[in-house]
Amino acid sequence: MVVIMKPDASPEDIQYVVRRSHSLGLKTHLSRQDARTFIGLVGDLRGLDPGVLAGLRGVERVQALTKPFRLASLEFRSAPTIVRIRDVEIGGAAVVTMAGPCSVETEAQILETARGVRDAGARLFRGGAFKPRSSPYSFQGLAEAGLELLARARDETGLPIVTEVLASEQVPLLSRYTDALQIGTRNMQNYALLHAVGESSMPVLLKRGMMCTIEELLLSAEYILSHGNPNVILCERGIRTFETYTRNTLDINAVPALKELTHLPVVVDPSHATGKSSLVKAASRASVAAGADGLLVEVHPDPENAWSDGFQSLTLPEFADLIGEVKRVAAAVGRTA
Ligand code: PEP
Ligand code: MN
After folding, report:
1. Residue 237: CB within 6 Å of ligand 1?
2. Within this chain, do residues 175 and 27 fall inside the same structural domain, yes or no?
3. What's the total number of domains in the chain?
4. Residue 259 resides in a domain
5. What is the pLDDT of residues 3-61, one digit of tens each?
6. 185 lines ligand 1 (CB under 6 A)
7. Could you give the percent of the chain with pLDDT greater than 70?
8. Within this chain, do residues 157 and 46 fall inside the same structural domain, yes or no?
9. What average pLDDT does the chain have?
């Protein structure tokens, strides 16, 4: 349920509705849009008479939310949410490209990649220090040493950094180093982790579970929003289908479908979605044309010798070429890049 305040409602009117909602055992989530305050109500709404709130001073109307995800829905907020990662805005007019290697490996690798992607036009640098690998014998990441290298890359290039968090206990440590937390496909339904990042104020890049529906993705986002963190970016990264030529199947439908359902920004990871560097450019073009707010692209100075995901990583020259394409497609659909 959402209480929509009149444009001329005073701060006292708003506070009164909030206090009244709390006294009914509900949590409140405030959002501003078109000069109005929207007060989202979360909790046990069974038996709540909307008239109790509709009659309060400054209230325009009380609206039921019909989707199972509430705070994430367009019914709750029709204006696009812009998530800021330092000075970079995701969800606005510009298509934002985040790039970097799958894993942080060495200082030389990380600095060369960070400088290269910045010079080509990336706005955010992404690399994994804690890696969720299918096999326990595969490289698991450099852990805190990797976070230190990422922070060095930010100091050198000015690019804000994004890195993956694997467990709730890691949130405080990672928040000291990084500018945004990635939740990977394998953890999209790790509810303890969603709860923990929901209680932090860090921007969260939430990747779609490889076997999860669009609605499940939005319900996972709802966990984060309902714990108080509004800074969620959704990421389509391909889903598992019967197809084996590609690593995953890019669900391009997810982009316009999510735009019909949510105000949250949507980005696409064409690297994991295809698993083949030769397909990344076409998948990126399609994603931007379909309305994605950004891309997450794996780049490595020497993909053949990468410690993880080299087969889907672009070289630095290939990445520079990709950025040119992204700019052209963005312009064709009325956006910048
Ligand atoms: C990654 O981004 O390197 C990664 C592990 O992605 P995903 O969780 O989508 O597999
Ligand atoms: Mn990867």
Report:
1. yes
2. no
3. 2
4. yes
5. 999 999 999 999 999 999 999 999 999 998 888 999 999 888 888 888 999 999 999 99
6. yes
7. 100
8. no
9. 96
- Domain range enclosing 59: 2-63
Answer whether 102 contacts ligand 1 (Cβ < 6 A).
yes
Instruction: Extract the runs of DSSP E, i.e. beta strands, from the chain.
Output: 2-5, 27-33, 36-42, 59-63, 83-85, 88-90, 96-100, 124-126, 161-164, 180-183, 204-207, 232-236, 266-268, 294-298
Residue nearest to atom 6 of ligand 1 (CA): 184
> Ligand 1: which residue has its CA nearest to atom 3?
102
The tokens of 100 are what?
A: 């970097």
Question: Per-residue pLDDT tens for 78-117?
Answer: 899 999 999 999 999 999 999 999 999 999 999 999 999 9
Distance 298 CA to ligand 1 centre (A): 10
Supply the residue whose CA is at minimum distance from atom 9 of ligand 1.
185
Ligand 1, closest atom to CA 128?
Answer: 3
Q: How far apart (Å, rounded) are the C-alpha atoms in residues 117 and 153?
A: 11
322, part of any domain: yes
Q: Report the separation in Å between the CA atom of 86 and the middle of ligand 1, taken as the mean of its atom positions.
A: 22
pLDDT band, very low/low/confident/very high, at 65 (cuts 50, 70, 90)? confident
Kindly state whether residues 42 and 162 are assigned to the same domain.
no
Ligand 2 centre distance from Cα of residue 1 (Å)? 39
Task: Identify the sign of the CA torsion 289, 239, 300, 125.
Answer: positive
H helices, E strands: number in the chain: 11, 14
76 domain residue, yes or no:
no
Residue 68 lies in a domain: no
Residues 112 and 194 in one domain: yes
CATH value at residue 6:
3.30.70.1140
Asked whether residue 162 falls in the same domain as residue 235, the answer is yes
**In b/e form, how buried is each residue of 112-148, taking b as 16+ CB within 10 angstroms?**
bbbbbbbebbbbbbbbbbbbeeeeeeeebbbeeebbb
Nearest ligand, CA 309: 2
Contact between 295 and 287 (Cβ < 8 Å): yes
Predicted model pTM: 0.95
* Domain containing residue 218: CATH number: 3.20.20.70
Among protein residues, the one with the nearest Cα to ligand 1's atom 1 is 102
